[in-house]
Structure formats: structure tokens, C-alpha cells
């Protein structure tokens, strides 16, 4: 008898079929090469759940602190408030919870949902001129300062020669 491995769906079906055909628990265990306790558990699971295969996926390991409902609420909040900071999003998640979650947990969940750290870039207007973006004045002032600075350098060079 092999110990510690999961039964395949076929093996579970053989056990259930043998028991339904009237084979004893001991004979079913010998037929499949599993313990008597395993035969009993598989048979009981079939009688209560109505299926021979028992899915263990999703039951193993530590449960996530943010469930499916919390994840949907988180995505809805982020869609409504695209410019919200991580601290604001974390605060909104923790608002109605008895157990608070950290900002890192919120960041991980957002990453799972497809939201990544992004930099917002101002959009150009319909005319496409950079002055309409709000940066035109600052660029113009910087150019004037650069031109004025170059004149100062040129005047100092002229005075020394």
C-alpha cells in the first residue's frame, strides 16, 4: 500500500464501483491497493456528495485575507478613483473590516487583478500644441533663462578679450 499520495479519479471510481457492486470494504481495499480507511472515506464522500472525485484544489494552504468579494470591491474602488494613492485604497478596504489588511496586501491583490504602478502623463489637447498641456509657460521661461544666461556668458567673454 502506497501512503501519502492522492487517488486518481479512476481509482476513486473503482472503489465506488466495487462498493456499489456489493464487494466488501476489505476486498475493495485489496483490489485497489489502498487502506480500508481510504475505501471508507471515498465511499462516504460518494454517498454524501454524490460524486466519486473529491477536489482538493482551493482547500490547501493558508486562506487569503482578501476574499473574492473584497477583491471585487477593491477593483471597483480603483476604477472609480484612478488617482487614489495606495494609502487611500488601503483605508477604503479596511473601512468595514474587523481584521485590517496591510498596504502590501492591497498592492499584491491589485497586481493579481492587473493593476500595476503607473505614471500618469498629461494628455495633449485636440490641437496638439504643447502650450495647451499647461507646460508651455514653464518651458518658455526656461528657454528665456537659458538664452539670458548664454548672453551673460558671451558678455563676460567679450569683456576679457
From TrEMBL:
GO terms for molecular function: DNA binding. Residues 117-161 are annotated as: Disordered. It holds the Pfam family HTH_Tnp_Tc3_2. GO terms for biological process: DNA integration; DNA transposition. Residues 72-119 form the Transposase Tc1-like domain. InterPro entries: Homeodomain-like_sf, Transposase_Tc1-like. This is Transposase Tc1-like domain-containing protein. It comes from Oreochromis aureus. The gene is SNCG.
Amino acid at each position: 500500500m502506497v501512503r501519502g499520495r492522492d487517488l486518481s479519479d479512476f481509482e476513486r471510481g473503482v472503489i465506488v464501483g466495487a462498493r456499489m457492486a456489493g464487494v466488501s470494504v476489505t476486498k475493495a481495499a485489496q483490489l485497489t491497493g489502498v487502506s480500508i480507511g481510504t475505501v471508507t472515506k471515498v465511499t462516504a464522500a460518494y454517498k454524501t456528495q454524490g460524486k466519486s472525485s473529491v477536489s482538493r484544489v482551493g482547500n490547501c494552504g493558508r486562506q487569503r485575507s482578501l476574499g473574492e468579494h473584497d477583491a471585487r470591491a477593491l477593483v471597483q474602488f480603483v476604477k472609480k478613483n484612478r488617482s487614489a494613492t495606495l494609502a487611500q485604497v488601503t483605508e477604503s478596504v479596511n473601512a468595514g473590516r474587523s481584521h485590517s489588511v496591510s498596504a502590501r496586501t492591497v498592492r499584491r491583490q491589485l497586481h493579481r487583478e492587473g493593476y500595476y504602478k503607473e505614471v500618469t502623463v498629461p494628455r495633449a489637447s485636440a490641437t496638439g500644441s504643447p502650450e495647451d498641456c499647461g507646460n508651455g509657460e514653464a518651458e518658455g521661461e526656461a528657454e528665456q533663462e537659458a538664452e539670458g544666461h548664454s548672453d551673460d556668458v558671451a558678455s563676460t567673454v567679450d569683456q576679457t578679450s
